[in-house]
Amino acid sequence: MCGFAGYAGMKEYDASVIRKMTDKIRHRGPDSQDAFVEGGVGLGFVRLSIIDLEGGSQPMFNEDKNLVLIFNGELYNYQGIREELIQAGHVFTTHTDSEILLHGYEEWGKEGLLKKLRGMFAFVIFDRKKKTLFGARDHFGIKPFYYYHKDGTFLFGSEIKSFLAHPDFQKELFEEKLPDFMTFGCIPGEETFFRNVYKLLPGHYFTCENDKVNVKMYWEPTFDINENQTIESVADKLDGVLEDSVNKHIIADVPVCSFLSSGVDSSYVAYELKDKVDLTTFTIDFVEQKYSEAPHAKELADELGIRNIGRKVSAEEYFHDAEKIQYYMDEPLANPSANLLYYISNRCSQDFKVALSGEGADEMFGGYNIYHENISLGGYQKLPKWFRKAVAKVVTPLPKFKGKGFLIRGSKDVEERYIGNSNVFKYEERDAFLKKKYKSRNPLDIAKEFYDKVPDLDDVSKMQYLDFNMWLRQEILLKADKMSMANSLELRVPFMDIEVFKTARTIPAKCKVNDSNTKLAFRALADRKFSKKSAERKKLMFPSPLPNWMREDQYYKMIKKEFKSETAGKFFNRKKILQLLEEHKEGKVTHSIQIWVVYTFLMWYKAYFINNGDLDKIEADCAH
């Protein structure tokens, strides 16, 4: 695991430029740092040593030194590919997974290589003779990849902050993206809050030659539902494929641990690990015990006979570190659980370099509570659509009453009512909270691009497909990588495996949700492994005392200060956002998520546009 940064262009720079770029991401790889510079190309690398601790340094070369590689990730099937390449005559000089990319590219070319890879990865290969760059990102987007392209300068890397150190990078806020952020709490799609900075999307690769950058998709998640399956038959299939995935994800030359919450996902990972490694698990805890998952995690740990260590989080540190956490995030992310991931990663990294976690199970197996909705609305939606629309039109202007939401949502198809797990400021109201009127897209139009690709899927699978392409990419995997790597910890996610997906893509809705539970087939499998109490426990999604913390004077005043600031006045209707805060403080209604979206943006803006991405200044700012 590591981080990389690079540039390509007509101008030539000495090695100090690429060194400064990788200095900005040294947290991703504190064990070593190196670079390659030739002409207008610079490739920099920082390493967190996991496999072949002595021989895996990068940038890495092929036999004739013509190809140069920088790579971030883990390839879980590298041993088999390595043997195949040796049989084809390739000579290896290391025992790392990285080296198969160089020889595989020589042997099979771009898409031929990518078809063979199983793992999490982002990499770039430079051909010194042809003066071309080729790079790719893994199927699901577990590992980040950003690039900047303007005026003959092409920058790329694991984190945007590395671009700040390049003399040709023009830092500019892409202010028009603010409405999207207000809705989703992140920026969907390939664009970012930095103008001309893009994400290389999951399942995509790029080529760069003569300042022309071409991006192409090599894989996308598609469903092939098999309705003949039962809950038990799916559980049987998952049993083998999940054990195999965990076995692949523990390949390392350093000890491995895991995160453990009260949910079935991380519990299952811990169960699979307990007989394979000397397992220690880590759990988020709170001073306020009613929010804590630690007692449930400890209960399961005792049941499985494994160690469990809790990491208590306080309101003081949560708010104290808000700006620093958004700095590490690169892209502002308003998911409150990101801070918790930061703290558990920090504790874990004191003893380990590699941890396994349960991200992705909900998207794979149908785990979100909203997926129940097709069942709860099912009977009503059998009525004619014109009738349901008429009822909704009548009740919409009426005062709130029990069942009003049901009648309104029941009048809509899934494409009209579901834009993904994030829907913070409703489209109809968000502009009132902004200082300016921006030209922006309706969130339904953003979601429609994905729904249009899967018109024949059932409603549950449609929601899964949307979350695969939005929520999972933009929130779940983003915070998993950034918060773990901020603490020099490699986080592996065995549910997010291409072989697991081959089974998950066939699961019918009846094996995912019913009127009382989610992830039915997966829970049935978990029932076989550990207590039904743990297997059936409802998903809590990192519960936190944040709504109550915001009502405490100390943190209420901290937020209020930012909401009244000159920066807030540049972007937001201060009267409206302060009204949200006051109503929340008084306990009239809970606005914690909306408040956190605004506050998160202000913290991120302060980190990058006031403190200019200078970590020393950011930490000094946090101290005050």
From TrEMBL:
Binding site residues for ATP: I284, S357, G358
Top EC class, one word: ligase
Pathway assigned in UniProt: Amino-acid biosynthesis; L-asparagine biosynthesis; L-asparagine from L-aspartate (L-Gln route): step 1/1
Active site residues according to the UniProt entry: C2
Important for beta-aspartyl-AMP intermediate formation (site feature) positions: E359
A molecular function (GO) term: asparagine synthase (glutamine-hydrolyzing) activity
GO cellular component, one term: cytosol
Gene3D superfamilies per UniProt: Glutamine Phosphoribosylpyrophosphate, subunit 1, domain 1 (3.60.20.10), HUPs (3.40.50.620)
Family per similarity comment: Belongs to the asparagine synthetase family.
Name of the molecule in the record: asparagine synthase (glutamine-hydrolyzing)
GN (gene name): asnB
